[in-house]
Amino acid sequence: MKRLLLSLLLTSAAFAASAETIGDVSTTFKLLSPNDKVVVDVFDDPDVGGVACYLSHAKTGGYSGALGLAEDTSDAAVACRQVGPITFKDKIDKQDEVFNARSSFLFKHVRVVRMVDVKRNTLVYLVYSDKIIEGSPKNSVTAVPVPTNQAVPPCSSTAILC
């Protein structure tokens, strides 16, 4: 059972959306190495057509950042918007990870989870960071209402896979 859950987790992470960088701003000047930055990325929800999420997150500069060895701070924000007609590729889980990016050399990630608010027919997106030993309570949330004439097709609460 543990192997099955681990396999599902890894498969879910592999299918998480990939992001495109929109731009960045420097927050700290460093003379001989890359500056600390706030980066803005965008990704499309992999299971819901017509929804794009904009993610801002800290990127540590310096020599360790340039080598990919720095640990980025847990500061992140997300804003998801309807950018076209909302379509569902299939039934969607009531809660599913839709984005995952490494934010340190080992064991720290920025994650975006989509949740379904069935009562209000709304898609809710939460960004947070986690670590093997200790995560961060810093988070941001956004919501995309689905048109009232279109129901969100969630899986049953007892389903393992859709």
Assign the structural class, choosing from mainly alpha, mainly beta, alpha/beta, alpha+beta, or little secondary structure: mainly beta
Mean pLDDT: 79
End-to-end gap: 18 Å
Number of domains: 1
Overall geometric form: elongated
Q: Order of SSEs, N→C?
A: HEEEHEEEEE
Oligomeric status: single chain
Task: Report strand %.
Answer: over 45%
With strands numbered from the N-terminus, the spatial order across the biggest sheet is 1-2-3-4
Low-confidence stretches: 1-16
Describe what this molecule looks like in 3D.
With about 160 residues, the protein is mainly beta. It has one domain (about 1-145). The chain has helices spanning about 1-15, 60-65; strands spanning about 20-30, 35-45, 50-60, 75-90, 95-100, 110-115, 120-130, 140-145. Strands 1-2-3-4 form a 4-stranded antiparallel beta sheet, with no helix packed on it. The protein has a 4-stranded antiparallel beta sheet with strand order 5-6-7-8, with no helix packed on it. Strand 5 and strand 6 (about 110-115) form a beta hairpin. The model is unreliable at about 1-15 (pLDDT under 50).
